[in-house]
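The protein record filed here.
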Amino acid sequence: MLFAGHARAQQIDLSHGGQITVTALGGFDWDQKLQTVTAYGSAQAVRGGVTITADRLVAYYRKKAGVAATPATAISPAPSPTPTPNPTPENPTGAPPADAKAANGSTIMPGGDTSATEIYRIVAIGHVHIFTATQQAFGDHGIYDIDQAVMVLTGHDLRLITPQDVLTARDQMEYGSQTRISVGRGDAVVTTNDGRRIRADVLVGYSAPPGAQPAGVKPAGVKPAGNGQDPIGSSGKLEKVNAFGNVIVRTQTETVRGDRGVYVPDTGIARIVGNVHITRGQNQLNGAAAIVNMHTGIATLSEDPGARVQGLIVPNEAQDAPPKVPARASATP
């Protein structure tokens, strides 16, 4: 099933360039009233270098702006002697709807001409996997808004994997390929490929512009799709992460907690603010803000003018030296 796409100069995400090809083992249902085409059974949508697979895909289409309406008589599904049943939870018998239907391998052409229509949204249901040559995302339910170039995933085991890092979340994951912003909501964790981790209620990651990614780097097990472009994020490495709510940063020797934080992977520096607690073994320091060097594993409480640093230092604690305290600050043993 082919739909003409938006024509733009740079094909950097699913919202740009070429046609969207939708295939399925179980066949298609076409609802002319709702202007949707549903693909069942190992459904797959491909445009350029990005592929979406799921148990079921629903493509929402519309007439292109400025294109004259096509008479209903021109709508011509490919001939199919015996439509293939498509059992679903809503339709256990698999009986085809009263609208149009197509069997395996059929090509549906709304409006009779793919150049007159375009897909503006794809909904993926069940075992959702979205991938390119270098990135992949997983969830139970996904929505890709082609107009906004935004992907939203919900369900279990939400993951967005890039060559440099992995973002996981419990409740929801969002990715904007044009803004290059990824968001994890609910016990979100970013883990870099060298083992550094930051956790929070909400994590917002900002990636580098296209072309900044090292050549030839791709996650294991991901095969190039289409022309090998990377529309989901033809982006470079992670530039910055903002963390909100119950922030936790772990180093080799310390755990740092706070209300908010910002982490820059290139420098390995994280700044945590608001009710900060630094723990090393039984030693603990509390303050308003802290700087964490993820390369050295050292956390340092930064001064808050007019405030005192408080903490618990355990003598002869079988750990390394206690967390660092600014020169003008004090700790209570």
